[in-house]
Amino acid sequence: MTYAEVIINSNARALNRIFDYIVPLDFEEKIKVGTRVFVPFGNNKKLEDGFVINIKATSEFANKEIAKISEEQSLTENNIILAKLMARKYFCNISECIKLMLPPGTGGKELENRAKEKTGSFVFLKEDIEKIDFLINTGKIKSEKHIRVLNFLKENDGIYISDLECIVEVSKAIIKTLEKNGYIEILQKQIERNPFINKKIEKDKPKVLNEEQKRCFEAINFCIQNNEYSKNLIYGITGSGKTEIYLWLIESAIKENKTAIVLVPEISLTPQMVDRFLARFGENIAVLHSKLSIGERYDEWKKIESGQAKIVIGARSAIFAPVKNLGIIIIDEEHDMSYKSDMTPRYNAKDLAGYLAKQNNCPLVLGSATPDIEDYKQALDRDISLYKLTKRANNMKLPEVEIVDLRFELANGNKSMLSIKLQKEIQKNIENGKQTILFLNRRGYSTFVMCRECGYVAKCKNCNISLTYHNTGNKLKCHYCGFEMSSLKTCPECESKKIKYFGTGTQKLEDEVTRIFPKATKIRMDIDTVSKKNSHEEILKKFKEENINILIGTQMVVKGHHFPNVTLVGVITADSNLNSEDYKAVEKTFQTLVQVAGRSGREEKGKVIIQTYNPDHYAIEYAKKQDYDLFYNAEIDLRKKLNYPPFCDIILIRFNGENLSEIKTIANKVYKKLNDINNNEFFVYKPVPSPIDRIKNKYRWRIILKCKLTSNIINIIQYSIENINLKDTSIVVDINPNNMM
Fold first, then answer.
1. Contact (CB, 8 A) for 224 and 231
2. Which among 190, 356, 563, 666 would be 20 to 30 A from 443, CA to CA?
């Protein structure tokens, strides 16, 4: 008799263990490690699904048989090994890691195959997302199934109705009720699941590499040709031609009948990267990112799985694409924090890329104009190979950067968001038919609202955070939970009318630009303007093709984009994040300034104006010089003195829940267990409230450890958080988090 070790598909921490099942004789030839199975579990009448993670000849515990198997939705043995490693390193359930490796839309019931259908019923949100959030948060929409459908549609608008029924596990009656209530609409439309169907791209030929590019290509290509693992950092100034090297390397891999994975940090970068790859390789590529419909993502996944697509381009989760014969992994803008997941499993795609590259004996390539401090230290220590590109590919010089001290602007009576110098340069650009990018990393209109009589600040009722004013709809909104309310005219505390709106966001900047330059054309790109499918691509295309005078944007406009006619970049407030609690705040500020400066002067002489209240800060000073090495030397010295990464790891243990008393009790229990077992291997800080101590009506406390993450440290943390009675409190462990808040 044969037995299978099965992991049940559940997020419950108590079920993150192996259950033994008898393999029926009929299934013995079909079942292998990675097979998806359906099994009886406990007293449930409904079968639970899970995955086989081991086959064995004996078992002391198996007393039930596997009921059904899925021949289509199976994983490889390598997938299971990776899921186990991830679950241990990132402190989560194996099943949560397995889900990342399944075809999109197949985490619950199986997705139907409708490739031959011509038309179908598609479900769209009829109300704005902000309105939906408001109705849910205020209890106007109470049904758990209704909320589940609406929350799913916020991320997957325009889904085939049967897909929605299968994935969210609701009946058609539920969907029809939502339609009747006016929250959604069901439209008949043609099924076009090819994301490239409307793209018309002219064929492109490889460009001649300069000496720096050629040296880099030849060294990494040697590893492709000889099936050797290597980790490589391409540190090239903005516009130095890193993408062209990627294209040459991928072409070499394809000639060897190998495949490639290319990760990009932002969805807004994907269309531009896709266009370049389509021009070079035709439709031999697949794209994976969250703005595709479930059906499109499913079809792209199947293209990869079948071997039809040789090149995968996508955001973080594309690292799990089912490629075969992997020849190279490329991570563009490798410094970007979006490669680290902020949701369970809290994995770092760069770590997984390194693991997969080793398993497949192929090179891993990291590229950036502002490398991650930790990766650059590895390169200087010769743990990874470093290639420097010091010249722009077209021999254009880096843009001239000028600092404007905002303290003097205010002293001279200029209360505008735009300094006099920046206003003059924008006007000059408009007159010369050139384009300008204005960067401000805050959306909305005003960042907080305060009563000048009693000091009252309008805060979210669910989160301990101030509300942001949005002039669209005249609303105060929470950027954490989506709660919104009408703007204030009188203070709810003292009834004073001395209400003042402080701070600035992209909406206010847009109004300011309109006031100062009434005849200029402008377009805004932030999370409020890119909520719909393809909106990233449409905004960037419109800006480029219609020669819009001014693009106003947040982080989305900073990295990777190539706009030939942009000759001016203005940074509205350079130091907004410098004083945050995050140990990476200074690094992020420097990277952002250099990256946004790199959008200027790609094909003509460019200029950058950085507005700041801290002109003497070394991040601002070295960003002006666009000198990464000077910045690195200053930052690495500081981190060494303070024992921050890369000299240690920071491990954040967070406790979330509605019962504050229980959170304190559990946090202190974990702290005591950590201290009891600590043999001077780590430094642990006492449990305290997080800087933002309540989000979505859940209190948040934390414990911070500083140490080098080792197998023994993982064991200690696991021991400290297991076997604790959790009624309302959840525990999250995050390794080197992006956000300490």
1. no
2. 563
Does the pLDDT at position 524 exceed 70?
yes
- Name the burial class of residue 641, with classes exposed (0-12), middle (13-18) and buried (19+) by CB atoms within 10 angstroms of its CB: exposed
* Sequence-ordered strand ranges (E) for 621-687: 649-657, 683-684
Scanning the structure block, which residue is given the tokens 């100062």? 516
| CB burial of residue 361 (10 Å; 0-12, 13-18, 19+) | middle
CB 369 within 8 A of CB 595: yes
Question: Residue 283 is encoded by which pair of tokens?
Answer: 């439709």
In 383-533, the DSSP E strands lie at: 385-389, 400-405, 435-439, 448-451, 468-470, 475-477, 484-486, 499-502, 522-525
The separation between CA 221 and the C-alpha centre of its own chain, rounded to angstroms, equals: 29
pLDDT of residue 275: 81
Which residues pair with residue 365 across a beta bridge?
A: 232, 330
Give just the sign of the alpha carbon dihedral 376, 380, 382, 383: negative
Contact (Cβ atoms closer than 8 angstroms) between residue 468 and residue 444: yes
Q: What are phi and psi of 573, to 5 degrees?
A: -140, 110
For the chain, the first-to-last Cα distance in angstroms comes to 53
As a whole number of Å, the CA-based R_g of the chain is: 27
CB 324 within 8 A of CB 261: no
The Cα 292–Cα 197 span in angstroms is 13
How sure is the predictor about 114, in pLDDT bands with cuts at 50, 70 and 90?
Answer: very low
> DSSP letters along 408-419, please?
HHHHTT--SSS-
39 within 8 A of 50, measured Cβ to Cβ? yes
CA distance 365 to 375: 12
Contacts of 376 (CB under 8 A, 6+ apart): 233, 235, 628, 632
What residues form DSSP beta bridges with 722?
none
Question: What's the pLDDT score for residue 531?
Answer: 65
Strand (E) or helix (H) holding 89: helix 77-89
DSSP state, residue 686: P
> Is omega for the bond preceding 345 within 30 degrees of 0, making it cis?
yes
**Among residues 681, 688, 677, 668, which one has the least CA distance to residue 719?**
677
Q: Is there a contact between 285 and 323 (Cβ–Cβ < 8 Å)? A: no
pTM over cut 0.85:
no
Six token digits for residue 189: 């439309």
Confidence of residue 110 (pLDDT cuts 50, 70, 90): very low
Return the HEC string of 228-256.
CCEEEEEEECCCCCHHHHHHHHHHHHHHC
CA distance 433 to 431: 6
Closest C-alpha to 141, from 482, 461, 579: 482
